């Protein structure tokens, strides 16, 4: 019994020894041995600064994949890959001792990394907070202690927007990186050129050129300057988008505004049409303002152009109101001023307006009768010749009624040049005159007819004069319309010329 127990104990101890020997005798891989060699010594803090004295050289480069600008928030969004390399002799080894391993990948927390900060960072991630040391990509460590850290990231940075040339603007945005923990006596940043091999333009912006520089910055309370890596991006807005979304619609609205001169004045739609286009332009101005920075100190080019257009429309509305008031002027109360008549006479040939008045035949006949009365009838008893003159006028007025002529005169736009005055004289023969109503043979009846005819003809004459006054106001309103059209069109064309010159200089 006792021998059996001892035998079992022997075999149990033997199995334990064999198992322990097998486990403890398993060989580590070369990389495991290398990690144990580098990071197994707990007596050294590998996250400490690698040098006891002197300055550490840090090679810093950016690989840029894309860039985009938000104008309203003045932010720059870039997709980059940070490429940093430095030497840490504490983490070197002989490849022959570790299976010819020349490089390995280590975690950023396992060793010292440059404590760089992104200036102007707007990222809301509190864990990141603009610190490149918080990026979690692996670091490549070579056997000679050189570490290379490639860390892709998307940055949201502050970029001051200059909107003077908006929407054909070019912006200069700065990307600045530096350390607040190590000054230039400990950390020297060697800035390398920007890598653009994989860069792609955004739909709205294109990269024109880039620059890089190393800056020395002295902060308050520090005697030794700090080195910063600075990159400058010159980015220009592509012209196609603002042309389609802003320029062409605005030009179309201004062009449609010019059609207000085609609408007849008596249609009553001129002012309504003008204010409709005015509201459309105001809508575009509001939409444009929403895309601009809130603290912009300069007036954008497009806003200046649209502001001038709005001012022109306001002045045009005033001119149209003047023209409409002239068109509907009450000629019984107001007569066209002499200065306006003089202006129309002098500029009529340039404006296509003829203010020269040509009297109708019945007005010439009426003047002949009155002249004859002054010469023969007043203070004289002879009435035979007067009979004939009155009969001539009666036949002339029967041929061309004054009311019909006044109506025709008021409807003509513009006034046409009449025939020579000599063509309006009556050419009736004596036999035709003698065949007129016998009422004219009696002198007393002749006086009565003459008085009544004088009253009637005075009324016709007043109506004809009133029609001409209406025609004068109408011609003046036409002149105002044409002058406004010329001025507005000239301003519009000049604005386009200056805008074209401005765009050409920018691009």
TrEMBL record:
Coiled-coil intervals, chain numbering: none
Transmembrane segments: 6-23, 246-265, 271-289, 301-330, 485-504
Entry membrane topology: Multi-pass membrane protein
Record carries keyword Ion transport: yes
One GO term describing the cellular component: membrane
CDD domains, alphabetized: LGIC_TM_cation
Keyword list, A-Z: Ion channel, Ion transport, Membrane, Transmembrane, Transmembrane helix, Transport
One GO molecular-function entry: transmembrane signaling receptor activity
Matches recorded under InterPro entries: Neur_chan_lig-bd (IPR006202), Neur_chan_lig-bd_sf (IPR036734), Neur_channel (IPR006201), Neuro-gated_channel_TM_sf (IPR036719), Neuro_actylchol_rec (IPR038050), Neurotrans-gated_channel_TM (IPR006029), Neurotransmitter_ion_chnl_CS (IPR018000)
Subcellular location(s) of the protein: Membrane
Residue ranges of every copy of the Neurotransmitter-gated ion-channel transmembrane domain listed in the record: 247-494
Bias kind Basic and acidic residues: ranges: 398-408
Pfam families: Neur_chan_LBD (PF02931), Neur_chan_memb (PF02932)
Domain of life: Eukaryota
Residue ranges of every copy of the Neurotransmitter-gated ion-channel ligand-binding domain listed in the record: 31-238
Chain spans, region Disordered: 398-430
UniProt record similarity statement: Belongs to the ligand-gated ion channel (TC 1.A.9) family.
Identification of the protein by name: Uncharacterized protein
């Amino acid at each position: 019994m006792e021998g059996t127990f001892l035998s079992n104990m022997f075999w149990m101890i033997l199995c334990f020894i064999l198992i322990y020997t097998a486990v403890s005798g398993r060989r580590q891989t070369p990389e495991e041995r290398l990690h144990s060699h580098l990071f197994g010594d707990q007596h050294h803090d590998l996250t400490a600064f690698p040098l006891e004295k002197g300055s550490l050289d840090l090679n810093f480069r950016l690989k840029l994949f894309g860039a985009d600008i938000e104008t309203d928030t003045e932010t720059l969004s870039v997709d980059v890959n940070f490429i940093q390399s430095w030497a840490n002799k504490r983490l070197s080894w002989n490849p022959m001792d570790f299976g010819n391993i020349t490089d390995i990948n280590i975690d950023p927390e396992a060793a010292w990394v440059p404590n760089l900060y992104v200036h102007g960072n707007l990222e809301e991630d509190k864990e990141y907070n603009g610190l490149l040391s918080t990026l979690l990509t692996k670091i490549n460590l070579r056997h000679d202690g050189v570490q290379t850290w490639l860390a892709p990231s998307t940055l949201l940075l502050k970029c001051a927007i200059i909107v003077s040339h908006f929407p054909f603007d070019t912006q200069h945005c700065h990307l600045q990186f530096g350390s607040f923990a190590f000054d230039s006596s400990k950390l020297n940043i060697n800035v390398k050129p920007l890598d653009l091999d994989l860069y792609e333009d955004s739909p709205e912006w294109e990269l024109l050129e880039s620059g890089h520089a190393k800056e020395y910055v002295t902060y308050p309370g520090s005697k030794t300057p700090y080195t910063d890596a600075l990159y400058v991006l010159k980015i220009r807005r592509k012209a196609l988008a603002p042309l389609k979304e802003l320029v062409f619609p605005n030009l179309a609205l201004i062009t449609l505004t010019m059609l207000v001169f085609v609408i007849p004045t008596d249609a009553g739609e001129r002012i309504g049409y003008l204010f409709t286009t005015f509201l459309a332009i105001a809508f575009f101005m509001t939409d444009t303002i929403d895309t601009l920075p809130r603290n912009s100190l300069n007036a954008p080019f497009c806003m200046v152009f649209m502001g001038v257009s709005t001012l022109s429309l306001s002045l045009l509305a005033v001119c149209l109101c003047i023209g409409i008031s002239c068109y509907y002027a009450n000629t019984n109360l107001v007569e066209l001023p002499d200065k306006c008549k003089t202006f129309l006479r002098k500029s009529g040939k340039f404006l296509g307006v003829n203010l020269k008045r040509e009297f109708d035949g019945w007005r010439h006949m009426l003047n002949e009768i009155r002249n004859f009365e002054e010469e023969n009838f007043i203070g004289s008893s002879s009435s035979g010749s007067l009979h004939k003159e009155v009969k001539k006028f009666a036949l002339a007025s029967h041929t061309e009624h004054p009311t019909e002529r006044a109506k025709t005169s008021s409807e003509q736009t513009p006034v046409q040049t009449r025939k020579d005055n000599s063509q309006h004289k009556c050419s009736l023969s004596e036999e035709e005159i003698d065949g007129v109503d016998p009422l004219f043979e009696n002198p007393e009846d002749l006086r009565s007819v003459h008085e009544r005819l004088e009253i009637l003809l005075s009324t016709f004459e007043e109506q004809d004069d009133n029609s001409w006054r209406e025609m004068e106001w109408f011609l003046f309103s036409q002149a105002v319309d044409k002058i406004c059209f010329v001025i507005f069109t000239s301003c519009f064309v000049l604005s386009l010329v200056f805008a074209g010159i401005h765009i050409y200089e920018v691009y």
